[in-house]
Amino acid sequence: MGNVIDSYACSVTFPIKICFTTIVADDGKIIPRHATIFPTNICNLNCSFCSHSECDRESSIDFQHLKEMVKEGKYFGFRAITLSGGGEPLLYNSIEDLIWFIHRQGIEIGLITNGTLLNRIPKTLLNKLTWCRISMSDNRDILNDNIVDIIRNTDITWGCNYILTENFNRQLLLALLKQAAQLDFEYFRITDDQHNDNIELPNIKLPEFAYYFRRNDYMEPGGACYIGLLKPTINVDGLIYPCCHPTTMKRLDSKNAIAVSIQELYDKQPVFDGSICLKCPFMQYNRILGKLKSITHSAFL
Ligand code: SF4
Question: Cα separation of 9 and 36, whole Å?
C-alpha cells in the first residue's frame, strides 16, 4: 500500500505531486496540467447530498467544442483529465467518443461516477481509464454482481467516495469496506454531507486503504486563487472556471468564468478572487502557486 492520501487526494493535502511535473513555464506562466470536465448535468439519480443539486439538469457540453478544448489543452500542457459532474458523466451522449478522443491525445483519464451505468461502457473502453472512483452513500449498495464483474475484469485503479448522511448505515459501510478490500480498491474515502455540518463518522476502525476526509477541515480562502491555471474546470457551458469544488461551483455563474479557451487561460493567467468562497479545499496549492509566480533565482535550490 503506497501513500494513499498523497496519491489519491488532491484537496486539503500538501500538493506533493507538483514535485513530479514542471508546472511553471520559462516565461513564468503556470501550465494547465490537469483539467476537470463536467460533460453533462443530466443525472439518473437524485441524491440528497448532491453538490450540484441547484444546477439545471438538462445541459451538456457541445462535443465539437469540447474536442477543440481538449486538443488545445494538449497543446498547452494537459497531462490528465478527470470526467466528473455536474450530472452523471456516463449519461453524456458522446461519452464513448470522448474517452477515445482523450485517450488518443495521450492524456490520462479519470472518471468519477455513481457507478450505476458502468455496465453500458465496453470493458475495452474502461481499460483506457487510469482510474475510476465510484460515489457511494448510506443508501447506495452499489457493489452488486454486475459492478463486481466489471471491477474484476478491468485493469485500472478503483476507488470510492462514500458520503455520510443523517441516515448513516454502519453495517452497510462495514460491508462495503470489506468488499472493497476484496476487490483490491486502492482507496476508500469517506466524506461528510456538505449540506449538513453536524454529521461525523462514528467511531469505526478503518482499514489502511480507507480515510475520513472532513469538509469542515477545508481552509479559509485567502483571496487570490491560482489553481484554475493549473487545474482548470471546464463546465457544461463550455467556459473555464477556477475550481471544481462543488460548493463554490454552485455559486458560480458565467460571470465567474476565468477564460473562454485554454489559450486565453494560458496567455492571460487570470487570478480568481477567492474571497467569494466559503471554504477552500485547495489553499495549499494556492499558496504555493502564488509564490511560484513571483520567484526569482530559481536555479539556486
Ligand atoms: S479560493 Fe475558491 S475557487 Fe479558489 S480553489 Fe479555493 S474554493 Fe476554489
Answer: 14
Per the structure, the complete domain to which residue 47 belongs is given by 2-292
CA atoms within 13 A on the CB side of 203: 0
Q: What is the pLDDT of residues 61-118, one digit of tens each?
A: 999 999 999 999 999 999 999 999 889 999 999 999 999 999 999 999 999 999 999 9
Q: How many domains does the chain have?
A: 1
- The pTM of this model reads 0.94
DSSP state letter for 231: S
Residue 298 domain flag: no
Residue to probe by mutation, ligand 1, list 271, 277, 285, 287, most atoms within 8 Å of CB:
277
Query: What is the radius of gyration, based on Cα positions, of the chain?
Result: 19
Ligand 1 neighbour 282 (Cβ under 6 A):
yes
Let me know if residue 301 belongs to a domain: no
3-state secondary structure of 175: helix
Q: Which CATH number does the domain housing residue 272 bear?
A: 3.20.20.70
The set of residues, in sequence order, having a beta carbon less than 8 Å from that of 26 and lying 6+ positions away, is none
